[in-house]
Design goal:
With 138 residues, this protein is of the alpha+beta class. It contains five helices and six strands. The longest helix has 13 residues.
């Protein structure tokens, strides 16, 4: 937990017990998690506390949000620890149609997109849908 506390402190986030536990859970998961799934893991915690924790992590570049087409926002630990949302790690996401998991494919970066003059990009997300490696073996 000391290592997690240092990560949070380096990002300007006070390492409360809840923040340490949420970070630890997110870091050990291979797939992205929704707020609802996070609530399941922290049954005795208030939804508002979990929501504020996730939003603080997102604002500080500790986690990033993923819109995978399900209408439910998922969250995952950022590959690198950036100083702001504008520098977030832009990589591919994969949503499995069979097991319903969404994972970050950090080795596959989203290329720079040149927009027409007058357009300003504020966010980008690319999700590929199909069958994941685990489900393809079944």
């Amino acid at each position: 937990m000391e290592e997690i506390a240092k990560i949070l402190e380096n990002k300007g986030v006070r390492p409360t017990a809840m923040r340490l536990l949420v970070y630890k859970l997110l870091a050990k998961r291979e797939n992205a998690i929704s707020l609802g799934e996070l609530e399941t893991d922290f049954k005795t915690s208030e939804r508002s506390t979990l929501f504020r924790t996730i939003k603080t992590f997102e604002e500080k570049g500790i986690v990033h949000s993923i819109e995978d087409g399900t209408g439910i926002i998922k969250y995952a630990i950022c590959e690198d620890y950036f100083t702001s949302r504008e520098n977030n790690d832009l990589h591919l996401h994969f949503r499995c149609n069979k097991c319903q998991e969404t994972v970050c494919l950090t080795d596959y970066k989203i290329p720079q997109i040149n927009l027409p003059k007058g357009y300003v990009s504020e966010d980008m997300n690319l999700t590929v849908k199909g069958i994941c490696e685990k489900c393809n073996m079944d």
